[in-house]
Design goal:
Layout (H helix, E strand, L loop, with lengths): L1 E9 L5 E10 L4 E5 L6 H8 L7 E6 L2 E2 L5 H6 L1 E5 L10 H5 L1 H5 L4 H14 L4 H4 L9 H14 L4 E5 L7 H18 L2 E6 L2 H7 L2 E6 L2 E6 L1 H5 L3
Parallel strand pairs: 3-8, 3-9, 6-7, 7-8
Antiparallel strand pairs: 1-2, 1-4, 4-5, 9-10
The structure holds adenosine-5'-diphosphate (2 copies).
Catalytic activity: a quaternary ammonium(out) + ATP + H2O = a quaternary ammonium(in) + ADP + phosphate + H(+)
GO biological process, one term: glycine betaine transport
Membrane topology: Peripheral membrane protein
Length: about 230
C-alpha cells in the first residue's frame, strides 16, 4: 500500500539525511519509524506528504507514484499529527476537526456528522467539547483532537510524528491504548515516529529502525523480540 523504492534525500547543503530506503507496508498496518535524534525519521515521514521532496527513488501509495500527484490533493489524503499539536487557536474544536472535510468540499451535514463521529471515536463528548477552543482543553485532550482531525478527512495514510511525546507518562499510555483500539475500527495505514522502543513494540505492526539515514532493520515486533 505504501512503498519506498530506493528513496533518498539530499538536502540543499549536500547533507544526505536519508539513503536508499526500501520497504513496503500493507493497508491498515502501523509502521513505526524509530532511531536516535537526527537519524532521518522526520525527513522520511515528510517525504510521504511531499513537505520535503525526495531527491532519489520513488514513493508509491496504492501503486501510484506520489511525485506525479498534485501536492494539495495528496495532502488532503494524508492525515498529519505532530507533537506540538498544531490546533488552530481561534477555531473551535469542531472547526479544527472539520478542516479537511471543509477543504474537500463535503456538504455541511456530512461534515458535521463526520466531526461528531471522530470526536466520539477519540473519547471526547461532542456536547461538551465541540464548541470549546483548544486552550480550554488539557494537553491530552488537545492531542485527541489532533488525532480526530487527522482522521476526519478519511485519509489513505496518517502520519504521526511523536504525537504523544510531550505528554505525561500516564496520559501517554492511555493514548497509546486508545490509538490501538481506534485502529481496530478505522484500519488506517499509519506511519508513527518515536524514539521510544517500548512504544514502538506496543504500537507497530512493522518497525523500521533507522541509523544515520539508513534503514538497518525492518521487522515485526515479534521478529525483533525473538532476536538473541
Ligand atoms: P532544502 O531545500 O534542502 O529542504 P531548506 O530550505 O529546508 O533546504 O534549508 C536550507 C538550509 O538550511 C539547508 O541547506 C541547511 O544548510 C540549513 N538547515 C535547515 N535545517 C537544518 C537542520 N535541521 N540541520 C542542518 N541544517 C539545516
Ligand atoms: P530525526 O527526525 O530522526 O531526528 P531528521 O529527519 O529531522 O531526523 O534529520 C535528519 C538529519 O538531516 C539531521 O542530521 C538533520 O540535522 C539533517 N537535516 C534536517 N533538515 C535539514 C535541512 N533542511 N538541511 C540540511 N540538513 C537537514
Amino acid at each position: 500500500m505504501l512503498k519506498f523504492e530506493h528513496v533518498g534525500k539530499k538536502y540543499a547543503n549536500g547533507f544526505e539525511a536519508v539513503k536508499d530506503i526500501n520497504f513496503e507496508v500493507e493497508s491498515g498496518e502501523i509502521l513505526v519509524l524509530i532511531g536516535p535524534s537526527g537519524c532521518g525519521k522526520t525527513t522520511t515521514m515528510k517525504m510521504i506528504n511531499r513537505l520535503i521532496p525526495n531527491t532519489s527513488g520513488k514513493i508509491y501509495i496504492h501503486g501510484k507514484d506520489i511525485s506525479k500527484e498534485n501536492p494539495d490533493t495528496l495532502r488532503k489524503n494524508i492525515g498529519y499529527v505532530i507533537q506540538q499539536i498544531g490546533l488552530f487557536p481561534h477555531y473551535t474544536i469542531e472547526e479544527n476537526v472539520g478542516l479537511i472535510p471543509q477543504l474537500k468540499g463535503w456538504d455541511a451535514g456530512k461534515k458535521k456528522e463526520r466531526v461528531l463521529e471522530m470526536l466520539r471515536l477519540v473519547g471526547l463528548d461532542p456536547d461538551v467539547f465541540a464548541k470549546r477552543y483548544p486552550k480550554q482543553l488539557s494537553g491530552g485532550q488537545q492531542q485527541r483532537v489532533g488525532v480526530a482531525r487527522a482522521l476526519a478527512g478519511d485519509p489513505e495514510v496518517v502520519l504521526m510524528d511523536e504525537p504523544f511525546g510531550a505528554l505525561d507518562p500516564i496520559t501517554r499510555e492511555q493514548l497509546q491504548d486508545e490509538l490501538l483500539k481506534l485502529q481496530k475500527e478505522v484500519k488506517k495505514t499509519i506511519v508513527f515516529v518515536t524514539h521510544d522502543m517500548e512504544e514502538a513494540l506496543k504500537l507497530g505492526d512493522k518497525i523500521a529502525i533507522l541509523k544515520d539515514g539508513e534503514l538497518v532493520q525492518f521487522d515485526s515486533p515479534e521478529q525483533i523480540l525473538s532476536q538473541p
